[in-house]
Design goal:
Layout: H1 4-17, H2 26-47, H3 49-65, H4 70-75, H5 80-94, H6 111-128, H7 130-137, H8 142-155, H9 161-164, H10 168-181, H11 184-208
Helix pairs in contact: 1-8, 7-10, 8-10
């Protein structure tokens, strides 16, 4: 119920951007996106949606800054501009952190441990395939724009899993499409690099937390 208005806003933005032709040049696409974004923000302003979104943004930031998660607290207390938006977006690509793997010994005796382990396995797969997501983002097609609108529209405001999960199907779609189109040698290099990165990040997490 509480996110219906935001969902309608996202759907409207995606619908308008869908009229940008596929064979349009990259520079012209960017120009169209900027113009459409300005018009959409103007519409949001005169209808009160923008004021509503800003007010809700402030409340959600306070909520995230008051959680028991130390990492989220620090990330969402950073001002959105100039670094807060980038840090939240990057953190979202690595979350939920796969720390549920530490409960793997209890996964067949505890339902919550079983759930956390499965989520962590999915998180690992997500992180390993991030190079393919980054490669796909350069194409700026409708699938990419749909993902960015849904992902950033939620991630910049909240870290609540039930909200950000809306962007996951689009993320998986982009990863799979790019993986399919990549040469075999490119796949191997990307997977090796991301696998090594996951290992290093895991060691850092164990040492710090």
């Amino acid at each position: 119920y509480w996110i219906r208005r935001e969902c309608a806003f996202f759907i409207g933005a995606i619908l308008i951007l869908s009229f940008v032709k596929r064979n349009t040049s990259r520079n012209r696409k960017i120009l169209y996106i900027v113009l459409i974004s300005v018009l959409f923000l103007h519409f949001a302003y005169i209808t009160g949606i923008l004021e509503y979104a800003v007010d809700k943004f402030g409340r959600y930031v306070k909520y995230n800054a008051a959680t028991d998660n130390t990492i989220i607290n620090k990330i969402y207390t950073i001002p959105l501009i100039p670094l807060g938006a980038l840090i939240r977006a990057l953190y979202g690509l690595l979350s939920p952190l796969p720390n549920g793997l530490f409960r793997i010994g209890y996964m067949f005796t505890d339902y919550y441990a079983f759930r956390d382990v499965l989520i962590s396995i999915g998180s690992l797969a997500q992180i390993v395939f991030l190079p393919f997501l980054f490669r796909r983002l350069r194409k700026m097609d409708l699938a990419v724009l749909t993902f960015l609108i849904t992902y950033l529209g939620n991630r910049l405001v909240t870290s609540t899993f039930r909200h950000i999960i809306m962007a996951y199907p689009f993320m998986m779609l982009l990863m799979c499409l790019e993986y399919k189109e990549c040469a075999i040698i490119t796949r191997k290099r990307a997977l090796f690099f991301s696998g090594f990165l996951v290992f290093v990040m895991g060691m850092i997490y164990i040492v710090l937390f």
